[in-house]
Every structure is written in C-alpha cells, then in structure tokens.
C-alpha cells in the first residue's frame, strides 16, 4: 500500500499506476481505477479514481 499526500514527492505520485492500492491522510484507501493529472499555473493536481470509493486528490 502506497501513502499519497501533499508531502509525497512528485516522483512517487507519478509512479502510482492503475491497480495499485493507495491511502491518503484522511484514511480513504482503495485500488486505483483511473488517474488524471492536471497542471494548473504553479500546481499539479493528481486525481486518483478509487474503485467503489470516490476519488483521492493530491495537490502538489
């Protein structure tokens, strides 16, 4: 299980792939079904769609 949060390195966030089990600081966890990465101004937003449990968002 990989922990993802705003303190995670960009390399760690980019290495997450579909099928990985991830967990965030709020306790939400699950298997990644889809990933969307958006670059906005000076930040990067990582949206990890979790199978049957919504989305985990990490803003870096």
List the helices and strands and how they pair.
Layout lengths: L1 E2 L6 H6 L5 E3 L5 E12 L2 E8 L4 E5 L1
Parallel strand pairs: 1-2
Antiparallel strand pairs: 2-3, 3-4, 4-5
Structure description:
By secondary structure, this protein is mainly β. The chain is built from 1 helix and 5 strands, in the order E-H-E-E-E-E. It has one helix spanning 10-15, and strands at residues 2-3, 21-23, 29-40, 43-50, 55-59. A 5-stranded mixed beta sheet has the order 1-2-3-4-5, with no helix packed on it. The longest helix is centred in the N-terminal third of the chain and has 6 residues, at 10-15.
Sheet having the most strands: 5 strands, mixed
Spatial arrangement of strands, main beta sheet: 1-2-3-4-5
Would you tell me the overall average pLDDT? 94
Distance between the termini: 20 Å
Summed up, the helix count is 1
Q: Given the C-alpha coordinates, what overall shape results?
A: globular
Number of strands: 5
Question: Radius of gyration, Cα only, in angstroms?
Answer: 10 Å
Which structural class best describes the helix and strand composition?
mainly beta
Strand percent estimate: over 45%
How would you spell out the order of helices and strands? EHEEEE
């Amino acid at each position: 299980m990989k922990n993802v949060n705003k303190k995670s390195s960009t390399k760690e966030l980019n290495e997450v792939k579909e099928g990985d089990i991830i967990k965030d600081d709020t306790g939400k966890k699950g298997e990644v079904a889809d990933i969307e990465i958006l670059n906005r101004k000076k930040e990067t937003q990582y949206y990890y769609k979790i199978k049957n449990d919504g989305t985990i968002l990490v803003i870096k």
